[in-house]
Amino acid sequence: MRKRNAFRPKTEEEVVFLETLKSEHLRLPAGADIIHPEQNGAELYTVFSGWAFRYKELPDGRRQILSIALPGDLLGLQASLFEKALYGAIALTDVELCLIPRRKLWSIFERMPAFAYDLTWLAAQSEAILDENLLTVGRRSAAERIASLFAGLFKRAEALGLVHDRTLVFPLTQQHVADALGLSLVHTNKTMARLKSLGLFALADGKLTIDNPRAMARFAQHFEKELSPRPIL
């Protein structure tokens, strides 16, 4: 993964240090819990392959998906720093995870300040994504919300080499989309059908095709800067 253009290069010293941090390489099936809400002693994970999502849930079962994690993203930073996990995380597809024990986090700040900066950068990036999601749910129309979600995920996946011929394997169901955007399932279904009829995207057999990502982004008023190489732990 470090060799992909999406990530900043690492020195040999940094690679060796990374190997001392990682304790396990986990494989979990789709639907498996990675972090339980209010879990004690949750660990820190880097997604190696597959998709996952973070969520919070009301007592009556209504769920809000907070963010979608793709390869290279961290899961559990808050949970590994706080006494209890403030959210849950679930594998959306079969996933592979690199586990970094929470007890080793302090050594990053002690021994490798550059990695400490990377960790802070990744936390800030996560906050920026959440800010964009809040703007989406608070101010964008239903059609703009869906277009923004699809455009953002497509752009992130493209940087990871997951898009081929303008097509991405897309594991989100309409229920996931509704839970991420604060929409009802019926409203999500009708709005997605309208966007398809406009030719903004095609979605069939678990594959998302966007022939003109710029048009999709303009429709959603989703104007992200070009993605530059980012840190990976």
UniProtKB/TrEMBL annotation:
Residue ranges of domain Cyclic nucleotide-binding in the record: 17-109
Keywords: DNA-binding, Transcription, Transcription regulation
UniProt keyword Cell inner membrane present: no
Pfam families: cNMP_binding (PF00027), HTH_Crp_2 (PF13545)
Top-rank lineage group of the source organism: Bacteria
Domain HTH crp-type: start-end pairs: 140-214
Name under which the protein is recorded: CRP-like cAMP-binding protein
Lineage: Bacteria, Pseudomonadati, Pseudomonadota, Alphaproteobacteria, Hyphomicrobiales
